[in-house]
Write a structure and sequence with these properties.
The chain has about 230 residues and is α+β, with helices and mostly antiparallel strands. It contains 5 helices and 8 strands.
Length: about 230
């Protein structure tokens, strides 16, 4: 098992349902052999329970995965060989998996709402990877299809006693606008005011700064940028 592919992380991905068959079988074998892994799975199930309970029971439409694969990889019949470094970059797939899971969940929640009239055609999925200065990813972000919320998925552990992490969107005018304060070491969806919705577009930047508790008192960043990344469309 690669060093950064820890049992705890694998079990979290198992609970989210983003592992392939081989990964699922590995986790199920781990749980069968060690009761500690079963307790870890129960912990992650409780952690994700509120999020996952929002999804009503439904079956995957026929051809959905083939369509996703076609959109991601085009006409390629199989992924590049293992010699391709970026393809096997675990860090890349960690944040992509988290953001895709978040984006797909948001899309499904929108599609499951009762239809009361003509519905607008959803735009492309908008995602961002917020990296620290050392290149490590601190957050994966997925923007709701209606751009009224941004889900920030914490991908690492951070300790900032006496400080709050505040998220910002920076559009082409270079002016940061606050999206709200993020909880410590937890995922959260921040509501987006209507006047900021159009700023959440491909090419804009999401950033996180350290601010006094409960956020910047001035409405502008006052502390250092701890993570940032451009929004891109899928």
């Amino acid at each position: 098992m690669p060093p950064d592919e820890t049992p705890d992380l694998l079990i979290a991905e198992y609970v989210l349902g983003v592992l392939g068959r081989e990964g699922r079988e590995r986790v199920e074998a781990m749980i069968a052999l060690d009761p500690r892994h079963e307790r870890t799975m129960a912990k992650w199930q409780a952690h994700f329970a509120e999020w996952l309970s929002q999804l009503p029971a439904s079956s995957t439409p026929i051809g959905a995965w083939r369509a996703i694969e076609q959109q991601l990889f085009g006409s390629a019949s199989r992924p590049p060989s293992r010699a391709s470094g970026w393809w096997n970059n675990l860090g890349l797939w960690r944040w992509t998996t988290a953001a895709l899971a978040a984006g797909l969940l948001a899309s499904v929640l929108i599609l499951q709402q009762p239809v009361s009239g003509p519905q607008p055609t959803p735009g492309p999925a908008l995602l961002a990877r917020l990296d620290q200065s050392d290149g490590n990813t601190l957050f994966a972000a997925a923007i709701n299809p209606d751009r009224r919320g941004v889900l920030f998925v914490s991908t690492g552990h951070a300790d900032w006693p006496g400080k709050s992490a505040e998220a910002w969107v920076i559009a082409s005018d270079g002016k940061p606008r606050s999206l709200g304060v993020l909880p410590a070491n937890a995922s959260a969806t921040l509501s987006v005011p209507p006047q900021l919705a159009d700023l959440l577009a491909s090419g804009a930047v999401l950033a996180v700064t350290l601010e006094p508790l409960n956020g910047s008192p001035s409405g502008l960043p006052t502390g250092p940028v701890v993570a940032q990344g451009k929004i891109s469309s899928l």
